Amino acid sequence: MDETAERDEIRGTAQGTAPVPLSVLDLVTVGAGRTATDALRTSVDIARLAESRGFHRYWVAEHHSMPGVASSSPAVILAHLAAHTDRIRLGSGGVMLPNHAPLVIAEQFGTLEAMAPGRIDLGLGRAPGTDGATAAALRRTQRLGEGADDFPEQLAELVRFLDDDFPDGHPYARIHAVPGPVQATSPGGVQSPHRPPVWLLGSSGFSARLAGVLGLPFAFAHHFSAQNTIPALDLYRESFRPSAVLDAPYALIGVAAIAADEEKEARRQVLAAALSMVRLRTGRPGLVPTPEEAEAYAFSPMEREFVGSWNANVIHGTADEVRAGLDDLQKRTGADELMITGNAHSGDVRLRSYELIADAYGLTGGRTAQV
């Protein structure tokens, strides 16, 4: 694989007046009174907007058993988005690898790469993306710690399948992920020079260190683990060893942000999203409530404390206020890329938020340049 081509598929270039490339993280949120079909249509609309305005990439997260989050099957959603876009990078933010056999993920993302050559990212996490009981149902085992502890070995196996380079004598040496490199070595075979670049995702130091040691790009979940952001990024940079993939660290952070035409409306939207998180954290997951429901909800003192803490890490307000918040966060963390997730009850609100952020930075679209 050409090293320069691989590196170009990771790094982006800032557009407009943005300090770094801007991207989108989509949870495919489902609001009260809406359907999963509505949410997926919104995802297509946002992906098209992101592509037309010059956002660098669009990732979909893996979650399970959450009524308000319809992103249980990232590969399926990415195939749908690939059919409705032409240039923007698409990927998983991320696939929770311990939930799956590495061969299955190599096959799924090899198929996506065949559908959208040179546009697919494979972001991997080691958390279950759900509660323990659901994780046990996914993994068909009660020994959930094994999946997380074995993550480095699972990752190595997945990369071997992606590159089709198990050594002679390995039990899997004669097993091939298709679509994949083996097709190029078959009689008459021609294979794409691309394969999805692997990213490691995390909300603590484990994946930060592993990504650094392996010389892989790293994505940190600042949107729900803000207190760990700078320590994890520091650890990643300190641990980084140049590799065939990257000659220097490259880290993006997920950022929760909602822009609205009026600051008051932005506050209403983030309150509704915060109520959804209150219910999730107290074992009552449901659809994202309306702002009216959130305003009428009787928050307990403990819930109000949680909401205050949660919303302190959500950048919200007018377009100019959100731009200032994003600029400050990038400056404080030194992130190489900001991946914005805007969770709200209404798809129209989410779409408008990304539109306003694009306007604030003067993103005018066109093919996203790469260095």
Describe the structure.
With 371 residues, this protein is of the alpha/beta class. The chain has 15 helices and nine strands. The chain has helices at residues 3-8, 36-53, 74-82, 102-115, 132-139, 144-149, 151-163, 182-185, 205-214, 229-239, 263-281, 291-296, 301-311, 319-333, 347-360; strands at 22-26, 57-60, 89-96, 120-125, 198-202, 218-220, 251-259, 314-317, 337-341. The protein has an eight-stranded parallel β-barrel, surrounded by eight helices. Helix 3 (74-82) runs parallel beside helix 4 (102-115), helix 4 (102-115) packs across helix 7 and helix 14 (319-333) crosses helix 15 (347-360). The longest helix has 19 residues, at 263-281. The radius of gyration is 20 Å and the shape is globular. The two termini are 18 Å apart. The relative contact order is 0.17. Mean pLDDT is 91; it is low at 1-7 and 367-371.
- Give the integer mean of the pLDDT values: 91
Largest sheet, described in full? 8 strands, parallel, barrel
Structural class: alpha/beta
Q: Total helix count?
A: 15
End-to-end distance? 18 Å
- Radius of gyration, in Å, reads 20 Å
Fraction of residues in β-strands = 5-15%
- The topology string of helices and strands comes to HEHEHEHEHHHHEHEHEHHHEHEH
Residues in helix, %? 40-55%
Strand order of the largest sheet: 1-2-3-4-5-6-7-9
Taken from the alpha-carbon principal axes, the silhouette is globular
Secondary structure: number of strands: 9
Low-confidence stretches: 1-7, 367-371
